[in-house]
From TrEMBL:
GO terms for molecular function: cis-regulatory region sequence-specific DNA binding; metal ion binding; oxidoreductase activity. Its cofactor is Fe(2+). One of its GO terms (cellular component) is nucleus. This is JmjC domain-containing protein. InterPro entries: Cupin_8, F-box-like_dom_sf, F-box_dom, JmjC_dom, JMJD6_ArgDemeth/LysHydrox. It comes from Centaurea solstitialis. It comes from the Eukaryota.
Length: 498
């Protein structure tokens, strides 16, 4: 971990740069100020003077107050301490925070209070929650609506000589903007005005990503979808935000104030049913019109989403569900994309052997801090780009991808199955563990048979034809070339037979 003074200079430099440059970020977003002291970092009301552990070895203090305040459990890792505290309710967390300064720091970590708030909200909870500036204040306000939460967590207590890499990095990831060197690399193929046939032959069939420009010109959403319009047309409709449902106006209240390592992301697959007007504000680009999952009608898996999130929100590395391909169109804002081909697992990412689970860094910023630099020396480097408003990225099936919003962003994404990818999807759906891998549908067990039967009914002979074409292509790839067939492998010369 770098020394805290160098990191502080880096962050302050970026904050000054942000003040002077023009930006499309919501001007209502509030950022908290940094304090400089001999003790190192603190972010008002959140960091409590926590410093990276490396500073302890440069300090004249003989002890780490983190240990003295934890007593006998000081030997546990900070991550394990927080896991244990996660079993406590709000009342007991509050009581424990008065035991020592060290427990005060641990018990006021925002993820603990975030979990308590989200756990108290069910999917059908019509009240949801209204964010009150911090997760602790939000929890108190939800439990006691009449209580004035303006003073919750405002003591500003700062603990001296408290060193923890784990807590410090969590705070740093929540406040550090994307570095320029994380955004500079842009090596994706870009195309404008190509035909559908050119897209299919150049990108969909060879399973290559591409960024398409200028194909959303007829979308009313590009002009209409600002915050005021969306709040007005969506009204009281509630959208999926992580494990809860929220009105769009309440979500914007949250996203304006939240400054955390993993901001909640609005990711709703039923938006068009909830607000049909949104469905009329966009249409599928011509390149993606063929979508064979549509033969399943109402039984098809979830396939389209509206995505809204503040800067720093996004999706960590994953492969899209059901072996589908996808397109993602940015309506407002911009997104950084990092993609790896199916045969290259991103650094720091550990998928289970069956692909059902993926372990990866806690946050996207943490991945960039700890792993991004190493990819510059890889033989197979990732495909990267910044996708801006009005642009569409094609994500081929099986590709790993990470996405982070660089500013307040709105996007539409759809997963689809075309003839070029049909056999891959069919193979995926009949895996022995398909019931655990298939997503977005009520019937995980019988989806393969239902899909196959529906394809045969709608497009007779299509599957058989595609299988024959795939076998022919495979045979051609395995067939030795002319020079391989005439070369004498034993002598290293050539042998001609007549």
């Amino acid at each position: 971990m770098p020394g805290c003074r160098s990191l502080l200079k880096q962050i302050k430099k970026r904050k000054r740069r942000k003040t002077h440059k023009s930006t499309t970020k919501n001007p209502k977003r509030k950022h908290q100020d940094f304090d400089i002291s001999e003790d190192g970092f603190s972010l008002k009301g959140q960091n409590y003077g926590v410093q990276p552990l490396g500073n302890f070895y440069l300090s004249s203090s003989p002890h780490n107050s983190r240990n003295t305040g934890l007593g006998n459990i000081q030997t546990l890792t900070d991550e394990l301490v927080l896991d244990i505290l996660g079993f406590l309710d709000g009342t007991h967390l509050g009581i424990l925070s008065t035991v020592s300064k060290s427990f005060y720091v641990f018990c006021n970590q925002e993820p603990l209070w975030r979990n308590l708030v989200l756990e108290s909200c069910s999917e059908n909870d019509e009240d949801g929650f209204l964010f009150k500036g911090s997760w602790k204040s939000t929890f108190v306000g939800k439990q006691n609506p009449c209580f004035d939460v303006s003073k919750v967590g405002s003591l500003g207590l700062k603990v001296k000589d408290f060193y923890s890499d784990y807590l410090f990095q969590s705070w740093l990831c929540a406040n550090l903007e994307m570095k320029g060197e994380w955004l500079d690399r842009d090596n994706i193929v870009r195309r404008r005005g190509i035909s559908v046939e050119e897209f299919v032959s150049g990108f969909e069939e060879p399973n290559r990503p591409v960024l398409l420009e200028g194909c959303l010109g007829d979308w009313p959403a590009l002009e209409k979808w600002d915050r005021d319009y969306l709040v007005k047309v969506c009204g009281d409709a509630r959208f999926s935000v992580g494990p809860v449902r929220m009105k769009l106006e309440d979500y914007f209240t949250y996203s304006d104030q939240a400054q955390e390592e993993r901001p909640l992301y609005l990711f709703d697959p039923k938006f068009a049913d909830k607000v049909p007007k949104l469905d009329r504000d966009y249409k599928v680009p011509a390149y993606f019109n063929e979508d064979l999952f549509s033969v399943l009608g109402d039984e098809r898996p979830d396939y389209r989403w509206i995505i809204i999130g503040p800067a720093g929100s996004g999706s960590s590395f994953h492969i899209d569900p059901n072996s589908t391909s996808a397109w993602n169109a940015v309506v407002k804002g911009s997104k950084k994309w990092v993609l790896f081909p199916p045969d290259v697992v991103p650094p720091g990412v550990h998928p289970s052997s069956d692909g059902a689970e993926v372990a990866c860094p806690v946050s996207i910023t943490e991945w960039f801090m700890n792993f991004y630099e190493s990819t510059k020396t890889w033989k197979k480097k990732p495909v990267e780009c910044v996708c801006k408003a009005g642009e569409v990225i094609f994500v081929p099936n099986g590709w790993w991808h990470l996405v982070i919003n660089l500013e307040d962003s709105i996007a539409i994404t759809q997963n689809f199955v075309s003839r070029r990818n049909l056999l891959n999807v069919m193979e995926f759906l009949k895996r022995p563990n398909a019931s655990t891998l298939v997503s977005g549908t009520r019937d995980r067990v019988n989806l393969h048979d239902k899909f196959r039967n529906a394809i045969e009914a709608s497009f007779p002979g299509t599957i058989e034809k595609l299988v024959l074409e795939a076998e022919k292509k495979k045979a051609e790839q395995e067939k030795p070339s002319f020079w391989d067939s005439v070369k004498d492998s034993n002598s290293g010369a050539f042998k001609f037979s007549f």
